[in-house]
Structure formats: structure tokens, C-alpha cells
Amino acid sequence: MTAIPLQPPRRLVEFTLDGAATRVPEGATLLDACRAAGKDVPTLCEGDTLTPKNACRVCVVEVEGARTLAPACSRAAEPGMSVHTDTERTRHSRRLVLELLASSVDLSTTPRAAAWIVEYGAEPGRFGADAARLNEEPKVDNDLYVRDYDKCILCYKCVDACGEQWQNTFAIAVAGRGFDARIAVEHDAPLTDSACVYCGNCIEVCPTGALSFKSEFDMRAAGTWDESAQSETTTVCAYCGVGCNLTLHVQDNEIVKVTSPHDNPVTHGNLCIKGRFGYQHVQNRD
Ligand code: SF4
Ligand code: SF4
Ligand code: FES
Predict the structure, then answer these.
(1) Cα dist. 190→142, 146, 195, 273 in Å?
(2) Is ligand 3 within 6 A of the CB of residue 58?
(3) Which CATH architecture has domain 139-283?
(4) What pLDDT was estimated at residue 6?
(5) Which intervals hold domain 4Fe-4S Mo/W bis-MGD-type (predicted)?
(6) pLDDT in tens, 118-150
(7) Which of 193, 213, 194 is nearest to 203 (CA)?
(8) Which ligand lies nearest to the CA atom of residue 275 in the structure?
(9) Which of 43, 64, 205, 214 falls between 20 and 30 A from 196, CA-CA?
């Protein structure tokens, strides 16, 4: 029998969140505390299965006594700190971040972005029509997934998922610097000529829809993509003995994409090509 060592119990950290006494396990972030308290702090680059990158700064909160605003997604709760999540300063900062992002990239498929823009009174148009836009055509170079970098906020989540944090394939990286920085495969080649193994783990973490299933991309183009008409069923992949969890997204009796629960302690939302994309035989009725 294999002995499984128990982790030592984690101590609780006591601090004040929007004036209310709060306790969270040691190591929890301010975002964890906000979510546990039912507070809706916007996030974009935060990934629940990835190390925080602090790229977008839309999640900032105010810590009493601190000179700068703190990103809630990466700042650990400390005993005695007093944190405010909804002040004029945090709202102003979030508004500006949303304005800058929405004026430079297409947030139309970023969940909740439109609602946050309204909530924070962001006016992306105030930078004028000349505000930087990539205006790149989506890269459709294979049958499995599409890269639409007009929607990319350069959060690097896909790079981390493809690289050392999960997949260790290192097919995608950041090319260029400053304003020219772009997510790309080596030599900006088509995906089919790259090291990509089509696990789709980058799609799983992309917060904006810049990376999407070809099925979703095609249905959006045809105007038939309708999340409200989709059901989700979590099951077990039958291809091999790892037994990853698959969540099948079904619309009109067809599987339209496959995701995986992030809270699975073995796979953390990651899959391989078979589990992610190998579902066509299920609906081949010929
Ligand atoms: S493609 Fe998606 S995950 Fe990758 S950097 Fe852009 S927005 Fe982030
Ligand atoms: S997703 Fe891949 S690794 Fe996981 S059970 Fe299926 S075939 Fe095996
Ligand atoms: S979500 Fe916290 S910095 Fe992006």
C-alpha cells in the first residue's frame, strides 16, 4: 500500500477586506479572499492553473499604507493588512486599463469585457481612430484551431501553458519587443510546420478567444455559435489509461468543443490531442 503523506495544516491569515474581518488560509491571494467573500474583481491574465503573470493589471486593489495599487491575483494576503477593492482609485485604474485594451485589441469574444467596460465607464473611443490596432487576418492554417491575434492581449498564458508550466513543448513564444511584441511560433511559420502537438492547452487558458477551436471560429463566422443553447457534460476520456476528464460542449446534438475541469488534481484542465480534438467519430452517423 502506498502511504500518502498528509500536508501540515495551513494557518489562517486574518486581515480586513472592505472593512470586514476576513480569514483565509496562509498563501491565499487577495483574489482568493475576494472570491470567497463573493466580491467581483475583474481579471483577464489570471489563470487558476497558472502562476500569476501580472500582465493586465485589471484586478488591482488598494492596500492601506501602500504607495501603489496591488494586483489582487498575485498579492498574498498578509496578517493585519487592510484592503479596499472598490475605491475611486481602483475604479479609475481599471477604467484606464479597459480603455487601453479595448482601443488596441478586439475584446468582442472576451467573456464579460463588455459588461466591465460599462461598469467602469471606460471609453475606448477617446484615443481616436488612430489608436494602435493590429488588423491582422486570423491565422487559419489547420483543421483544429485558429489564432486570431487581433484579439490577443499579450497575457502570455498560452506561452506558459505550452512551455514550462504544463506542456513543455515550447511551440509558441513571444516574438519581437515593445509595440512589435507578438505571440508566434518559431520563424512565424504556419502551425503545421511548428513544434505544436495540438493539445489545445493554450486554447483552454486563453482569456480572450484569440485562440479558439476551428469549430467555434467557423460557427461564429456563420452566426450559429450560441452558448446559451449549449449543454456541458463532463465525462472520462476513453482513449488511454490516464483517464482525463473531458467536458463536452454540445449544441444541436453536436459536440462543438471540448474543455477539461481545472480543478482536476491530476490534469488541471490539460488534455492531449486525442481528448481535446478526437471527437468526430462520436457524431459520424454515416
Ligand atoms: S493568444 Fe490568448 S493566451 Fe496567448 S497571449 Fe494572447 S490573449 Fe493571452
Ligand atoms: S486526453 Fe489524452 S492523455 Fe488524457 S485520457 Fe485522453 S488520450 Fe489519455
Ligand atoms: S488579472 Fe491580475 S494582473 Fe491580470
Answers:
(1) 8, 11, 10, 18
(2) yes
(3) 2-Layer Sandwich (3.30)
(4) 74
(5) 230-286
(6) 999 999 988 877 776 778 899 999 999 999 999
(7) 213
(8) 2
(9) 43
Instruction: Choose among 20, 42, 28, 39: nearest CA to 75.
Output: 28
> Which of 34, 49, 58 for a ligand 3 pocket mutation test, highest count of atoms within 8 Å of Cβ?
58
Please indicate whether residue 244, judged by its CB atom, sits closer than 6 Å to ligand 2: yes
Q: Is the pLDDT of residue 19 over 90?
A: yes
Beta strands in the chain (DSSP E): 12-17, 20-25, 60-63, 70-71, 82-84, 145-147, 172-175, 182-185, 211-213, 231-236, 245-251, 254-259
- CATH number for 12-86: choose from 3.10.20.740, 3.40.50.720, 3.40.50.300, 1.10.760.10: 3.10.20.740
Domain ranges within the chain, ordered by starting residue: 12-86, 139-283
> 61 CB less than 6 Å from ligand 3?
no
pLDDT tier at 2 (50, 70, 90 boundaries)? low
User: Which ligand 1 atom sits nearest the alpha carbon of residue 151?
Assistant: 7
Query: Judging by DSSP bridges, how do beta strands 211-213 and 172-175 pair with one another?
Result: unpaired
* Per-residue model confidence as pLDDT tens digits over 72-107: 999 999 999 999 999 999 999 999 999 999 998 999
Nearest to 260 by CA among 199, 208, 185: 199
Ligand 3 nearest-atom number relative to CA 53 = 3
Strand partners, 76: 29
pLDDT at site 170: 95
- Spatial contact of 154 and 55, defined as CB atoms under 8 Å apart: yes
Query: Is it the case that residue 27 has pLDDT exceeding 80?
Result: yes
